[in-house]
Amino acid sequence: MELLFLWPLVGLLGTLLAVVLALVLPSNWGGSRGGRRMSYAERRRLERHQARTQKTCPECAESVQKNARVCKHCGYRFDGEVRPA
User: Fold this and answer.
1) Taking 70 as the threshold, does the pLDDT of residue 2 lie above it?
2) Buried/exposed 61-80: b ≥16 CB within 10 Å, e otherwise
3) Do the domain assignments include residue 68?
4) What tens digit of pLDDT does each residue of 57-84 get?
5) What is the sign of the dihedral through the CA atoms of 29, 35, 38 and 39?
């Protein structure tokens, strides 16, 4: 019974901690790009970059690095491909 008055204090401290963390942590800490939508130009730039640096696995259709020898998703081996030097 003596500790019954401490529970509201614990709740208040927890609320204060949550407010401080919300103010201190960056806005994009838990999400991608801070919740901002990509513009058309940014999306096109990202697509061009991915086209240069990634390829699609013929077995599972996932994107993997251009110089990958084995698909990290399904284990498909890219043995028969000719790679540039």
Assistant:
1) yes
2) eeebeeeeeebeeeebebee
3) yes
4) 999 999 999 999 999 999 999 986 545 5
5) negative
